[in-house]
Structures are given as structure tokens and as C-alpha cells.
Give the backbone structure.
Amino acid sequence: MGVNLRDIIPEKAVEQVDMSFFKGKKLAIDAYNALYQFLAIIRQPNGTPLKDSRGRITSHLSGLFYRTVNFIELGIKPVYVFDGTPPEIKEMEIMRRKKLKEEAAVKYEEALRRGDLEVARIYAQQTARLTEEMVDDAKKLLDALGIPWVQAPSEGEAQAAYMAQKGDVWGTVSQDYDSLLFGAPRLVRNLTISGRRKLPRKREYIEINPEVIRLDKVLSGLGISREQLIDIAILIGTDYNPEGIKGVGPKTALRLIKMHGSLENALKQLREAAFPVEPSAIREIFLKPQVSGNYKLEWRKPDEEAVMDILCKEHDFSPERVKKAVGRALKAFEEHHKQASLELWFKVR
């Protein structure tokens, strides 16, 4: 879920852009975050996900394929970063999410029995689960498309932030604000879900556009350090202490940290005798996360045959539609590759 810092992000730290803004940029995408978005959004009217003839869910593959082809056409260079083993103190949040999914599944079935498809679809989106097989299929598809992916030792967002800090990518892509806590200099939101989206329970649509949030402008705008931003997140509740402090939202947390300087001092004023998790342990995850420098970023020409085998032969996608999309990707790859070669030639000259 991540920490929702939206209410305290300064306006000057957020830049609304269109997709063309990212042409030529290397972006580290939180793979699990993106795949869960595809699983939630790409569904039948009654909430059922897309499936192949053997009953295996394919919504994530559909979203990953067509969105990535769009990136290639736009000249964007994505690299997908996959989660590894979560920190031990995340167990409480993992159990909470599991319980919420189980409750949503029950409400989904009840809504179906009532014939309320709109409500059923909403609850169905909350039941999305990613299996190891689904993740493996996503990695195979990325290989076939010539798109690099990185296996993080622990949190994917931490790995992506590390790659951005090193300058190997321009920014990180996620819907969660945790990337800022991990030190990502630029966070890109809405990249994987940009476009026209229907509002829940309404016959209205909104246009979702990408936005870039810059960490330095967030910190200067709020007048705090990154360590203090982490303390604010802990007060609100993170994936490592999901409940936070009762009654403390983003604005109150900001005020408390600015007034008292640190989480420990704020807790004394709140008279919190016990905290479920040692605050320093949570800070350590954000400030010194488990990351790896053992990765290679290389964008290759899409392999049409491999893509067709994975999507059409293995998962029953429409050969005509897939072939057409791969054709677009191949054409774009050649054009961008040719342009990059020309630019390099002129620089050398």
C-alpha cells in the first residue's frame, strides 16, 4: 500500500507532464506495483480477470505487453524492478493485506449474487493476487520484448531508488510515495495507468496524466530533512507499522515533527508509552535498505517469435493483435536506434 503523503506534498514539487516528456529517459518501474494495477483494472464487466483456455489469469500480461509497447513507441527506456524477500517486520502488513483480500472476496461473491456488477467489480479489484508463476511469465515476456528487468534482494522500490541515485536511471515509477522515503530523486506517478479512467460507481471519466515529484523540492518546500520525512511516514503508518499513531494524519504528523524535531520527541509529547515496532528499525530500512549493484541494463530488439509463443501459443492471445503490436514495437525500436546512432556519430565528430 505504501504511505499516502499526498496531502503534504508541496505543489511546487509536482510537475504535470505528458508521456512525450519521458522520451529518451531510462525509468525504473516498480514491477509489482504495475502488475497489481493491471490485475485490478483489466477485468470483465463482472470483475472477472482475463484468463486463457486453461483458466490462468492473463490480465497482468495484457497490461504489461501493451503498455510496454507504448513505452517503446514513445522512446521511453523502461526497466522493471521486482521485489525480493520482504523485511521481517513487514509480516504484519502482509497478513493485513491477506485478510483484506479474503474479506473482499466474500463481498465480491455477495455482490454477484445480488446482481450488482458495479460493486462486484470494485471488490474484485481488491482480491488481486500475484503468484510466482505469474511473475515468471512477466519476466519471460520482458525478455522477449528486449526490456531489462532487475531482481531486487528485498524491496523493489528501494532497489529502483538506488538505481536512480546512482544515475543509472532518470527516475523511479510507482504509485506509492515510499520511493521518496528510499531516496529516489524523482518519482513518476501514473505512468503505467495514464489515460481515460472511469470513476467508481459513477458514469464519469477522468483523464489521468503522469506527474513527476522531485524529492529535493519536497524537502525544501516542507522545510525538513529526508530523515524527518521518514519520521512523518512512521507516525502516519508505513508497511512496517501499518497502524501508525491513531488520529495522526499527514498534516498533523508534519506539524509534530517540525515542532519537536524527531519522532522520539513527538512520541513523548503524544505520551505513547509503547510503539509496536522500534522506530530506528523502520528508519534503517528506508535509509540503508538491502539493494544490489549487480545488474546490467540493456535494451534489445523485440523478438517477435518469442513474444508470439508466450502470448498466443501459451496464453491464447489474438495472434493478429499481438503481431500488429509487436510490429509497432519493432518499427519504433529501429527508428529510435537509428536516431541514437546518428546523435552519437555527430557527438563523436
